[in-house]
Specification:
two-stranded antiparallel ribbon, 194 residues, 61% helix, mainly alpha, 7 helices, 2 strands, 2% strand
Length: 194
């Protein structure tokens, strides 16, 4: 929808948005599967539910999107600029998914908005958090559920702000690829801060 709106604003054919999304999703899944099989040498993983690697999905999705743009004679920088706001809002929504399944949380905290994830992946027990290098009170029993920073929500908020900023400056006249560079700067700053 975000890419469609930008194509409409530019007066261009908004069907390219569907090409981008379908290419990224389908080839991303294929790339994620193939990368997993290459890493594990487990051919049975090709037909299992699991066995997806993020890097493979990224490589497969990007390759499909850029190849399709090249086939349609759309410069890569134009495609990159079109996807910049959608990537920011998509990442923000994806982090909501991480929050709902209770993974990718932060370190222990005593702040009032700290959250406990007893069913997390892994649960936020003192023992599990120590495995990942967290500083835990020596008096805490290993099974105690500790409050942690809800970094998933921090990232959602920051990337929604990034989306808002990118959306506001998207019409500024700059060199092609500039808007994607703005997205990369925001994404890098957000990850560094969190």
């Amino acid at each position: 929808w975000v890419i469609q709106k930008e194509l409409q604003r530019r007066g261009e054919n908004d069907e390219y948005a569907a090409d981008i999304v379908v290419g990224a999703v389908l080839r991303g899944i294929i790339g994620a599967k193939l990368w997993y099989v290459a890493l594990t040498r487990d051919l049975d993983a090709l037909v299992s539910r699991g066995g997806l690697v993020w890097y493979g999905g990224f490589v497969g999705g990007v390759a499909a999107v850029l190849f399709n743009g090249w086939r349609k004679r759309i410069p890569a920088t134009t495609t990159m600029d079109l996807t910049a706001p959608a990537l920011a809002v998509g990442y923000a929504l994806g982090r909501v998914g991480c929050f709902l399944v209770q993974d990718d949380y932060g370190m222990p905290t005593t702040l009032p908005w700290g959250m406990k994830f007893p069913q997390g992946l892994p649960p936020t027990t003192a023992a599990e958090l120590q495995k990942y290098g967290a500083t835990v009170s020596p008096n805490a029993p290993p099974w105690e559920i500790l409050a942690v920073h809800p970094t998933q929500l921090y990232e959602t908020a920051l990337m929604l702000l990034a989306f808002w900023a990118i959306w506001r400056v998207r019409a500024h006249r700059h060199k092609p690829g500039w808007l994607f560079g703005v997205y990369l700067a925001f994404a890098g700053m957000e990850r560094f801060l969190v």
